[in-house]
Amino acid sequence: MLEQFDKKLTQPENCIIGFGIPTSEAAYLQSREAAEERFARRYQAYAAYEYQVIEPYNRLAPRLRRLGVKIIPDLTLAQFKRCFAEASVHAVILFSHWNDEAIEFHDGYAAVPEIVESVPYEYTGVVDLCVCHPESLIPELRRRRPNCCIHHIRATATPLFWLNFYAAVFHYLRRAHKRYLEVLDMFIINWIKQSQIYNAI
């Protein structure tokens, strides 16, 4: 099935990007008040979070929607599960934060088994994890969801970097009519390795 999927040409409208971390001031403030440690608490001042996440999100999200990308801010686990319902979806990008053994969603952390169960067994597209170091999640997804491709870039960078990275990927997909994974590989070489933040797997 992966070979069959790998031949699909992807356009931005075949992609969904969901944000488990806050993308607005209200969500940032709500996240900082949560009982558990959230990504927002890494930023003591709202101005720093605004510069790294909210400002580039507000600048880039409207452009990506115009290209056809479906963007889901304040992504909940239930919404993540619904991302896989449409046959036209080639790639689901999860843009969020990893904390020990769980990924942050708007409604709280979801552990590895919950995330795996959210991906249908029959899904044959890409699950692209824009999440730092989800080491225990990746092998479980690959073992229990063998029909899809689990993609993860082992590199550490700011949300600002990743927002611009994916914006470039989607703009290129609109023009190029190529496979999603093919374009990702090209941008990994052109962006990440040249930025000297890439750690080889």
General description of the model:
The chain has 201 residues and is an alpha/beta fold. The protein has one domain: 3-Layer(aba) Sandwich (Rossmann fold), CATH 3.40.50. It is 44% helix and 16% strand. The chain has eight helices and eight strands. The protein has helices spanning 2-6, 25-32, 46-67, 77-82, 112-118, 137-144, 159-176, 180-193, and strands at 15-19, 70-72, 91-95, 98-99, 102-105, 108-111, 126-130, 149-152. The strands form two sheets. It has a five-stranded parallel β-sheet, with helices on both faces. A three-stranded antiparallel β-sheet has the order 4-5-6. Helix 3 (46-67) packs parallel to helix 7 (159-176) and helix 5 runs parallel beside helix 6. The longest helix is centred in the first third of the chain and has 22 residues, at 46-67. The two termini are 25 Å apart.
Spell out the blueprint of helices and strands:
Blueprint: H1 2-6, E1 15-19, H2 25-32, H3 46-67, E2 70-72, H4 77-82, E3 91-95, E4 98-99, E5 102-105, E6 108-111, H5 112-118, E7 126-130, H6 137-144, E8 149-152, H7 159-176, H8 180-193
Parallel strand pairs: 1-2, 1-3, 3-7, 7-8
Antiparallel strand pairs: 4-5, 5-6
Helix pairs in contact: 3-7, 5-6, 7-8
Question: Helix/strand-derived class?
Answer: alpha/beta
Total strand segments: 8
Taken in chain order, the helices and strands follow as HEHHEHEEEEHEHEHH
Shape: globular
Question: In CATH terms, what is the fold-level topology?
Answer: Rossmann fold
Distance between the termini: 25 Å
Main beta sheet: 5 strands, parallel
